[in-house]
Amino acid sequence: MTDRTTPEDEAYSVAPGADVSADAVIGAGTKIWHLAQVREKALLGSNCVVGRGAYIGTGVTVGENCKIQNHALVYEPAHLDDGVFIGPAVVLTNDTYPRAINPDGTQKSASDWDAVGVSIGRGAAIGARAVCVAPLTIGAWALVAAGSVVTRDVPDHALVAGVPARRLGWVGKTGRKLEPSATEPSVLVCPDTGEKYREDGDAIVVLDGEEPRA
């Protein structure tokens, strides 16, 4: 890989064959692999990984420590917070009513539609080949199962799966499904960290530890 510099003279790496716009801003330590494309005015934070053949659209914003795996398509105006995982071949769409032509048969241009985006909160993970249909928001630390089609907002810490995706439970910050506490009624516990949560309607509340940041 070839080291390049940001305007602040901090190095990032671009593999041969990747196409990174000179107008993109790339954080220090970020690695962009073969055949990936990063478009104009995209903003990628530090220590990210953009896999082989991935696409980052014009003006997309990506936080620090994100992983965007091979052949994922992140269309503008998507926003990814810090620590987001995008699995292989995931698609974040940007057109609710896609058409190649207008009703009169003329080809659509950029002025004939308004792009809408997918926003993904801190620490969330989107499994391989999932499709997220904009506009929608996926909450912090949520987990979207592989192959799902997400058509509505996903709460913080929710586990969703299916076509269309529906909530199957809740997950902690490690991605493990929360389990009922053996000693405290109505309390859910992360089996890895021991953090405690309680359901509150269609949301979940952290009882100890840091509150999730959207």
TrEMBL record:
Q: Which InterPro entries match?
A: Hexapep (IPR001451), Trans_hexapeptide_repeat (IPR050179), Trimer_LpxA-like_sf (IPR011004)
Q: What class of enzyme is it?
A: transferase
For this UniProt record, give its keywords in alphabetical order, as a comma-separated list: Acyltransferase, Transferase
Answer whether the UniProt record assigns the keyword Transferase to this protein.
yes
Which Pfam families does this UniProt record tie to the protein? Answer: Hexapep, Hexapep_2
Q: Which domain of life is it from?
A: Bacteria
Give the EC number(s) under which this enzyme is classified.
2.3.1.-
Q: Which GO terms describe its molecular function?
A: acyltransferase activity
This chain belongs to the protein called Acyltransferase
